[in-house]
Amino acid sequence: MSPIPEIVTRPSIPRMQSTVSLTSKSSWFFIAHAQYCTNVFNSAVEHDRLQDQAIGLDEMMHNSSIHAPLTNPRQIVDVGCGTGIITRQLGETYTNAHVYGIDLSPVPAGQTTPNVEFILGDVRQLIGSHPRLDHGSTDFVFSRLLVLGITDWQGYVKDMMSMVRPGGWVEMQDLVIELYLYGSRCSGDWEWMKAIYAAAEKKGWDLQCGRNIKGYMEEAGLEDVVVKEYKLPFGTWLAEEKPETRRIGEHAAREYGMLYYHAMPKMLQGMDYTQEQLERFQTSCLKDMAGREGLEFRYYVTIGRKPGGE
């Protein structure tokens, strides 16, 4: 298959004034069956942050968030839909499709087209039990940034494939939790990063999922699997060369250090670190993730098609 086509022309996401505060705190919860450990900031402030992040990611991808080559889909599912921004976008683009956004936390109210519906719950429990989410019922399943929300990627990918009709598409967008400086990995020796990776091994997170999803899709039996990699900079150092990265770079430099700072005590829970060690990790995290020239994450988009169909 040729490189992922940009075949969708859809309404641009409305720009908004961010009201994000750097002092927002995270609350966490667990869904036992799915073994999710998701950082949920169920507040207007966090909804603003997620909205601003979504707009920045959309711009980074040249205002084409969806990479799968969809043709007249009848049903679409957006897993872990957050604020619902992509769900609503899909509803506006594919007006003849039923579009379902699924999340563990209630989606904030907003203007929604009649073909969009939000469902509260764990998608892996809902498949086959919810009347609209039967096996083989969906033309396209989309998910984004579930790196700290999934502890069984093989099972998750297989379940998403089971929900798709033959010939349908699965698209997953995610990070690798490691940082690069001018193209070379720089975070491998950071003390706090090594602590997070040790916790991930114990808790079942795949912090390399962004680049590993390709293998999970192929193992599940998806075909025509294609990966596209994006540079997600901290700050605006890449904006002159790639203007589309400016907003997400500003967001990353402003938000991601504080995001990991507040999440770290929960991420490292059960790892027997002292309070002094945790505070040292947090301080180092803020310093290392500050917006400096050349610093970046890698963001991966992976699509795969279920065999069969026309």
Descriptive overview:
With 310 residues, the chain is of the alpha/beta class. The chain has helices at 44-60, 85-93, 123-126, 153-163, 191-203, 209-220, 246-267, 275-288; strands spanning 27-31, 36-40, 75-79, 98-103, 116-120, 138-144, 164-181, 184-185, 223-233, 295-305. Strands 3, 4, 5, 6, 7, 8, 9 and 10 form an 8-stranded mixed β-sheet that branches. The protein has a two-stranded antiparallel sheet with strand order 1-2. The two termini are 17 Å apart.
Detail the poorly predicted runs.
Answer: 1-41
Number of helices: 8
Average pLDDT level:
86
Rg on CA atoms, Å: 19 Å
SS-based class = alpha/beta
User: What string gives the helices and strands in order?
Assistant: EEHEHEEHEHEEHHEHHE
- Strand fraction band? 15-25%
Fraction in helix: 25-40%
Secondary-structure blueprint of this entry?
Layout: E1 27-31, E2 36-40, H1 44-60, E3 75-79, H2 85-93, E4 98-103, E5 116-120, H3 123-126, E6 138-144, H4 153-163, E7 164-181, E8 184-185, H5 191-203, H6 209-220, E9 223-233, H7 246-267, H8 275-288, E10 295-305
Parallel strand pairs: 3-4, 3-6, 4-5, 6-7
Antiparallel strand pairs: 1-2, 7-8, 7-10, 9-10
